[in-house]
From TrEMBL:
The lineage of its organism: Bacteria, Pseudomonadati, Pseudomonadota, Betaproteobacteria, Burkholderiales. Keywords: Metal-binding, Zinc, Zinc-finger. Residues 52-85 form the SWIM-type domain. Residues 116-137 have a biased composition (Low complexity). Residues 110-142 are annotated as: Disordered. InterPro entries: Znf_SWIM. The keyword Manganese does not apply. It comes from Massilia violaceinigra. This is SWIM zinc finger family protein.
Length: 451
C-alpha cells in the first residue's frame, strides 16, 4: 500500500523535513531502487562519498536511514516515499539486499522480544516482590499527594486574590507574575496546572485574541474548578478521579493502560494537529472506529528534532486494537495491535446528525466537566465567511468557526459553496475544522494547536 503525497508529507516531523524531503523526490537523486511486497529501498547520494541507504517498511510504515539525522523520518525517508508515490515503476521488484532484510528481521525480533519480556517479567515476579513494589509505590504516591495538596492550596489562594482584585491590572504585572506561580506548581509536582497557567498567561498578553478577557476569565475559572475537584478527590467517582489526577499532572504508565481489555475495530485516521512549546512537540491524532463509530485520541510527544514513535497519517486506516485510558468519558488511547494498514475507504462511518453530535458532547461534558475539546464528524455542512465565519447545516443552524482557525479560504475552496463532511474539535463555543471529506477524499489542514 502506498500513501499519496499529502499523507506522506503529514508523516514528516516538522515543516523543514517535509520541504527537504520534497526536494529529494526526483529520480536523479537516487540509485539502486528496489521493492518487495512489504518494503522499498534506495541509495541517495549526499555530500560524502558513500550514499545514504534508506529503507521503508510499508506495513506500518517505518523508516530507517544511514544518514546522521536524528529526525524521524528523515528527509531521505520522506523523499524516497514521495518518489514511490509519484513513480512506482522506478522500483524494480527484487529480493531485498542484506542491509534491508537484516533491518526487517531485527524489527520482527524486537517486537517478539518485547512481548516475551513483558510476559517473563510478569511471570518472574513473586507475590512477595509484588507486595513490596506496591508498598514502595504507595509510599511515593502519598509523598507526592501531600506536595500536590499544598501546591493546590497555594494556587486556590492566588486565584481567590485575583478574583477579588479583578483582571484589569493583570497585564501591568508582567509575565513574571504568571511565571512565579507556574514555577511553584512545578515544584509541587503539579505540571498539568503549571501548563494551564502558562496557557492563561499567553491569553493575557495576546492582544490579537478575540474576546481575550472573556477567554482568560473562563480559563481561570476552569483552573479553579480543577483545583477544587482535586482537593475533594475522595468525593468523586473513580473514573473522574482518574481524569482529575491526569489533568493535574499524575502520569499513568502505558503498561497499565495496555493491560486493560482492548477495543477491536477498523480505525480510520481522520484528523491531526501539532503543538510546540519549544522543547517538546505534541501531536494529537483522532481515530474513529468504522464499525463502532467510537472516537479515540492518540497523543504523542517528540523532543527536539526527534520524530514520533508511531507514524499515523490522516487519510489512512488500519485494523487494530486500542486500549483506552481510564476515565469518565474515555477518549485517549494507545495502539496495542495494528494490522492491514491502508488508505482510507471511499466512505466514512455514518455521521450522526448535528443534534446527535451536540447531544454526545453534552453527555460527555456531563460525565467529565473538564473536557476541553470534543471530536465532531459533521455531514452536509456548508462553510461561510462573513463577519463571523461559520458552518451552516441543512436546517440553517450554524456552528461558529474558532477565531484562531487559519485555513478559512482553503475550506471555502474545498466546499465551493456545496455541503461537505467536516471533522473538527468543538470546545462548546466554536469548532476548529481539522479535515474535510469530499468526493471520496480526505483533505487535512496543517493545523497547529489553537488556544
Amino acid at each position: 500500500m502506498t500513501l499519496n503525497a499529502d499523507q506522506i508529507l503529514a508523516l514528516a516531523p516538522d515543516a523543514s523535513s517535509a520541504k527537504a524531503g520534497s526536494q529529494l523526490a526526483g529520480p536523479a537523486k537516487w540509485s539502486n531502487l528496489g521493492r518487495t511486497d512489504s518494503a522499498v529501498w534506495g541509495e541517495c547520494q549526499g555530500s560524502g562519498k558513500v550514499p545514504y541507504r534508506t529503507q521503508i517498511d510499508l506495513g506500518e510504515p517505518a523508516f530507517k536511514c544511514s544518514c546522521p539525522s536524528r529526525k524521524f523520518p528523515c528527509k531521505h525517508g520522506i523523499g524516497l516515499y514521495l518518489l514511490l508515490a509519484a513513480n512506482g515503476t522506478l522500483f524494480a521488484a527484487a529480493a531485498a539486499p542484506q542491509w534491508v532484510s537484516d533491518w526487517l528481521d531485527s524489527r520482527q525480533q524486537r517486537s517478539e522480544k518485547k512481548q516475551q519480556s513483558a510476559a517473563d517479567k510478569a511471570a518472574a515476579t513473586t507475590p512477595e516482590q509484588a507486595a513490596a513494589q506496591a508498598a514502595a509505590a504507595q509510599k511515593r504516591e502519598e509523598k507526592r499527594d501531600s506536595k500536590v495538596a499544598a501546591g493546590i492550596v497555594e494556587l486556590q489562594t492566588w486565584l481567590e486574590d485575583l478574583a477579588r482584585e479583578g483582571l484589569s491590572t493583570l497585564r501591568a504585572r508582567g509575565p513574571g507574575f504568571w511565571n512565579d506561580i507556574a514555577a511553584r506548581m512545578v515544584d509541587a509536582q503539579a505540571a498539568g496546572l503549571a501548563a494551564r497557567l502558562r496557557r492563561a498567561s499567553g491569553m493575557c498578553f495576546d492582544t490579537s485574541l478575540p474576546d481575550r478577557e472573556t477567554r482568560l476569565a473562563r480559563e481561570l475559572a476552569s483552573i479553579y474548578l480543577l483545583c477544587t475537584a482535586c482537593s475533594r478527590l475522595p468525593d468523586l467517582t473513580p473514573e473522574l478521579q482518574s481524569d482529575v489526577r491526569s489533568l493535574v499532572g499524575w502520569n499513568i504508565s502505558q503498561e497499565d493502560v495496555l493491560a486493560q481489555a482492548g477495543v477491536q475495530d477498523r480505525w480510520q485516521v481522520l484528523a491531526q494537529h501539532t503543538g510546540d512549546n519549544e522543547r517538546v512537540r505534541a501531536r494529537t491524532t483522532w481515530l474513529r472506529g468504522q464499525a463502532s463509530g467510537r472516537w479515540a485520541m492518540i497523543l504523542q510527544y517528540a523532543a527536539g528534532s526527534l520524530g514520533y514513535d508511531k507514524v499515523l497519517a490522516p487519510g489512512t486506516q488500519f485494523d487494530g486494537e486500542l486500549c483506552f485510558y481510564h476515565g469518565a468519558y474515555p477518549l485517549r488511547a494507545l495502539i496495542r495491535q495494528q494490522d492491514a494498514f491502508g488508505t482510507l475507504d471511499t466512505t466514512l462511518a455514518p455521521a450522526p446528525t448535528l443534534d446527535a453530535a451536540l447531544a454526545a458532547y453534552a453527555g460527555a461534558l456531563a460525565r467529565n466537566p473538564f473536557l476541553e475539546r470534543f471530536p465532531l464528524l459533521l455531514d452536509a455542512m456548508v462553510p461561510h465567511a462573513g463577519t463571523v465565519p461559520h458552518l451552516a447545516g441543512a436546517d440553517g443552524r450554524i456552528l461558529p468557526l474558532h477565531p484562531g482557525f487559519r485555513h478559512l479560504w482553503p475550506l471555502l475552496a474545498l466546499s465551493g459553496g456545496h455541503p461537505v463532511t467536516v471533522i473538527g474539535e468543538w470546545d462548546g463555543h466554536a469548532i476548529v475544522p481539522l479535515s474535510v471529506f469530499t468526493e471520496a477524499r480526505l483533505h487535512h489542514f496543517d493545523n497547529e494547536t489553537v488556544a
